[in-house]
Amino acid sequence: MEDFQATKPIYMQLADRINHKIVRNELRAGEKLKSVRDMAVESGVNPNTVQRTYSELERMDIVESRRGQGTFVTEDKGKLQQLRDDLKNEHISNFINQMTEMGFSKNEMVKGLQNYIQKEGE
Amino acid sequence: MEDFQATKPIYMQLADRINHKIVRNELRAGEKLKSVRDMAVESGVNPNTVQRTYSELERMDIVESRRGQGTFVTEDKGKLQQLRDDLKNEHISNFINQMTEMGFSKNEMVKGLQNYIQKEGE
Amino acid sequence: MEDFQATKPIYMQLADRINHKIVRNELRAGEKLKSVRDMAVESGVNPNTVQRTYSELERMDIVESRRGQGTFVTEDKGKLQQLRDDLKNEHISNFINQMTEMGFSKNEMVKGLQNYIQKEGE
Amino acid sequence: MEDFQATKPIYMQLADRINHKIVRNELRAGEKLKSVRDMAVESGVNPNTVQRTYSELERMDIVESRRGQGTFVTEDKGKLQQLRDDLKNEHISNFINQMTEMGFSKNEMVKGLQNYIQKEGE
DNA sequence: GTGGTCTAGACCACA
DNA sequence: GTGGTCTAGACCACG
């Protein structure tokens, strides 16, 4: 049997959060992120961990660091659109994997989703 | 900001796995589960943890402990059908929540899922 | 006037050294690098710094980390050929920049190089 | 393994810059260099450092100090020509060493340089 | 033993 | 102030 747990490292969880904020437009193109130190305090983690998150986001071209000024969401709307698409596909892919693991067919997934939405609306 | 991590406790993760096995029909109605001791060894966890998992499943009327004999999947097909439905709805609900949080409409979710399945098949 | 110094960070200098070793075939495809700790001792730097170097090389697909086993030069010969080409172009580019800064024309650079080699051989 | 960093001392970096200026003819034979004090302010370094740079250049017969008047580029055109040749040869030599270290033959270096220039021009 | 993550705290470069 | 690098030392996951 496979092992348990395997939680994502904090620096990635933090990156996920920031990505979601961007996708939800709580953080807009060109907007400044919290400083490394402030984010560290607010998140209750070490500044180095935040630094690593920001570096990771910069590597993904989602964020741009300007020494002495701060870290900013990229101005490249295309990149942000791509991020939104990537996250969407990731969630869909996870959903399909889970449902497949439970033995549902693709057709049942779509039907199930539609029914659920239908019922919710009633 | 909320805290990080919050991995599900192991006993719940183990319960999830067993539920998935039942739903996939790898464990059938009336079938005997592994003994607490065997399951503990196989999963590499403490027997007490397995015991707690089995208790939890019994509380949900999914399994039934028979003193001196072991633990068995319920014979009640209705319960098992309900389990399948519950898990399905849980996953669907989670999916909708995540997509909603990213700002997608219900319509986009269904379309996105269909498109993804479509592309996958190509 | 522009500022002085600006030496590359240690983790990059170390990456450069390893890349050169690979290009010179002192480290071959598939070969194991020194462990993070050993390399740290040998180089007189902190293990975290070596770790960062290895991560960087992995991000560049030059090296592959296998948890519990070590870090290995990629088996992908194409990648290694590309590395060789990249380093070559980098050195050539630097050379051209320096010579240009001194006021030499492209033609003088080639001539100068050929003459130098000529004289060296005598 | 050799140590890292080993940035050239600032006084030598400054000497390099001045030499480059002379070679590019931004500073001509006989022209007056900035005063030690002015150069120190402009470069953001200590006047003693500039003094050391000027002494070094004087030792190389590239500049000439005239008490009470300042520091002047030598009038000796031969010297300046020699400086240009020395710098050129130094850069060429460095280039050859690096490329040799990477395992390139002399022929590949020349070819590589020509190809690079060729591609750049396109 | 291996690599991977995290913390604490220091120092640097830039503006 | 900002981000970037480095050290020291701890703990984890994997094999």
- Overall SS class of chain A: mainly alpha
**Beta-strand content bin of chain A:** 5-15%
Q: Percentage of helical residues of chain A?
A: 55-70%
CATH superfamily of the largest domain in chain A: Winged helix-like DNA-binding domain superfamily/Winged helix DNA-binding domain
**3D shape of chain A:** elongated
Instruction: Give the helices and strands of chain A as they follow along the chain.
Output: HHHEEHH
Which strand order do you get reading across the main beta sheet of chain A? 1-2
Task: Name the descriptors.
homotetramer, 122 residues, mainly alpha, Arc Repressor Mutant, subunit A, 2 domains, elongated, DNA-binding
Give a description of the structure.
- The structure is a homotetramer of 122-residue chains.
- Chain A has 122 residues and is mainly alpha-helical.
- Chain A has helices at residues 10-23, 36-43, 47-59, 77-101, 106-121, and strands at 63-66, 70-73.
- Chain A has a two-stranded antiparallel ribbon with strand order 1-2.
- Helices cover 62% and strands 7% of the residues of chain A.
- The first copy, chain A, is elongated and about 55 Å long.
- The first copy, chain A, folds into two domains: 10-75, Winged helix-like DNA-binding domain superfamily/Winged helix DNA-binding domain (Arc Repressor Mutant, subunit A); 78-121.
- The longest helix of chain A has 25 residues, at 77-101.
- Chain A has five helices and two strands; from the N terminus they run αααββαα.
- Chain A binds chain B through residues 1, 3-5, 7, 10, 13-14, 17, 20, 23-25, 42-45, 84, 87-89, 91-93, 95-96, 98-99, 101-104, 106, 109-110, 112-114, 116-117, 120, and chain B through 1, 3-5, 7, 10, 13-14, 17, 20, 23-25, 42-45, 84, 87-89, 91-96, 98-99, 101-104, 106, 109-110, 112-114, 116-117, 120.
- Chain A binds a DNA duplex (15 and 15 nucleotides) through residues 3, 5-6, 9-11, 35-37, 45-49, 51-52, 54-55, 65-71.
